[in-house]
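Researcher: Please predict.
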Amino acid sequence: MEFLIISLLIIAGLILIILEVLLMPGLITGIVGGLLLLSSVVYAFVEFGFSGGVIVLAISCALLIVVFFVMKKLKVWNRFVLSEENKFSIEENIQDNLTIGMTGIALTDLKPTGFVLVDDKKFDATSSGEFIPKNSKIEIVSIQGFKVTVKKVEE
């Protein structure tokens, strides 16, 4: 009977860990699965002594390793890893592309930050204090390092 309880605890623990990875990431099912595996080992130590506990511990670790390698072989881990390269780059010197007084349009609402289009290039910008709605005409009033400050131009 003890062997059946230990086997069920191990199987239930592995199933919950697999469910955590495949279906419900971020929930507590993986933690509960780990606790069930730990419970099986503790129960084996109590019921079968040191040697029985060590055997169950080794079996549990071996099964976890097998599950890990099967998931790796099936490429389950690929959904957790960024697969495409980030092509976004920051302009080395924003001042080479922009000058004070240039005009453009607000691509997003600036409340107070957002994106603007100046000289057919997209920049992150901050308004000089006021709310600037999307598609409003803007003018660059200051450039400090990577910080571009704009104001709304009345049409």
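Model: The radius of gyration is 29 Å.
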